[in-house]
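cache lookup: miss for this entity combination. No prior model stored, computing from scratch. Input as submitted by user K.M.:
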Amino acid sequence: MRQKVWKVALGELLDVEGVVAEEVMSRDQALLLPVGVSLSALKETQPDIVSLLLKHGVTHVKVKSVPVITAGEFRTALNSVTPSVVELNPLLTKIAIHQFGAIYENVEDRSLRERGIRTMLTIAARLPGEIRRTPQITLSLVGAEDRERESPHIHSINVALLTGYIAQRLFPVLPAFVEACVVGGLFHDIGKAFFPQFSWRSATGSGGLFPGDAKIFNCHPLLGESLMKDVGVRDTHVCGAVRSHHEKWEGAGVPDRLRGENIPMAARIVAVADCFENLTSNLLEDDPRRSDQAISTVIGLTSSDFDSRIVRGLLASIGLYPPGTVVLLSDQRVGIVLETKERDLLCPRVLICADALGRRIAPFETLKIRKEGNVYIKEALDDFSRRKLEPYVPAAAG
Ligand SMILES: [Fe+2]
Ligand SMILES: [Fe+2]
């Protein structure tokens, strides 16, 4: 992921926010500063570092900007801007992750497994309301701790949310269908619960599938569908989404090699959301792509893999710079996208967090990028939403 890197004179080093971008070595090749050290941490732990570097003849240090903003600060800033930007209820996410974990753990025990899936269905029923309440793709899509980010459950929740956003955008007058899409998105990979040891990363990577891997990979949609039917789910959209989310528009998918319009609509939506989520998450990708890069990849797969209407729906739902994208502005300031309007995908509202030198500003300012204005988005740097967020602690009552 590219980030802004610049040279800082030694005298200013401890006044700048960011991390060391390149190893600093002494003339006799001793390591003076390792890559990735936070300058603010350095200031606290080694205030005499500047004189040490000076002694070794160092004059500049390469620094990489990281918008140093905690999840708490970000949420406070979100609450302070008007019109307000609503965040998905993080507690709901936590509960869903936990519940998925319980299903995976007890998948061999039929009664526990079915109880788990039924509970999950009640959680799923709350998601469409959250999606309607949140005008933009949620900023916490999905904010979780590192341990949880690696979890396949986060993937399922993100796919459910994305599916819901796209479905809502394309079928606003069909709320029951939107709900079914969300449920289908949430459970699309539930068949994987039977293969806890299987490396989905290698199976879905660019290296292709080994024959044995292909068998496992290909059967998870069918297993998932039968799990849903076992608990009495009869909705054709839900079952279709789970069974057919790996079908491809030109007929090269699994398990039924369906083609074009024969692929259930809910499955077509889940397929696009699934691909986008996989590209941007670190579950399957060593180097997850930024949202704008992932969108380009998805667009490139339109017509071979995806229904072009759904891809347009994805673009309309999240824009080129989805909320949470860290952006470098043309005047070198760094901000986080708060919201994008569908009609104006290049002109989001941005929360400015750092000045042109990468120094954090306080309080944060909001800026509406305007078509006719002087300031524009130069490039996307990273996704705040994919950064480590602190665990959400609900405010104590009273
Ligand atoms: Fe899948
Ligand atoms: Fe998936």
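stored under new cache key. Residues 325-386 form one domain.
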